[in-house]
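Subject: Sanity check before I submit

Could someone independently write out the structure tokens for this chain? I want to compare against mine line by line before I put it in a report. The sequence has 223 residues.
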Amino acid sequence: MMKTMYGQKSICLKQRGFTLVEMGMVLAIIGFILSGILGGQSLIRSAKVNDVVAIVEDLRTASTLFKQRFNYLPGDFPAAAGDIPGVLMTGDGNGQIGGAGNVTAGTGLAVARTEVAWAPLHLFNAGLVGKVDSGEPLRLISTSYGGVHLVSSAIATALVPTFAATNPTVRNAIVFYNLPCDVLLQVDAKIDNGAGATGRAVGNVAVVGACPDGVVDWYAVAL
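---
Independent answer below. Compare away.
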């Protein structure tokens, strides 16, 4: 209650708060918005997981078809075997894609004019993959996280030390750079055993419970 300066007339000032029903509606709207945001993030992450899985399947199929057609793997294709239009470098034909020094571990890039650098272009020029990123010649194929390369088992093991032990008969691999741990584990559940540290697809750390900064530098998948 409040009195005016000019007489005894009183003015009542009333303040009206939210009712329980109104507060409930506000909270419901906030919850709906948050649910939509989280759901959208989940869909985006799921799409990125499926992209990695698709790359694995596409490169496995393309490499198999390339070898059936040309008798050599992409990147390893030697000059003596003939010609693929547009390919500026040829391999040594030893059955493995690249050797020591073909990939820079700290950047995720291939080294210029090596078997690893040119393997995706072999596939592209042979019409076995639909596109490569011509603006990134040392990372012609990539995910939204980093580069993807076809490599020999020796290179894969240099990047992921446990690869040779878990895949002693595998001669070549696909390696992914800079995958988040949760993405890696979801991918592994789709293409391998879901462990991420054992089997035909392994990360360079024991990703279950021991992933630094939420990211695995290298993930090697048997080709």
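---
OP: Matches mine. For the report I'm noting this point. The chain has a mean pLDDT of 84.
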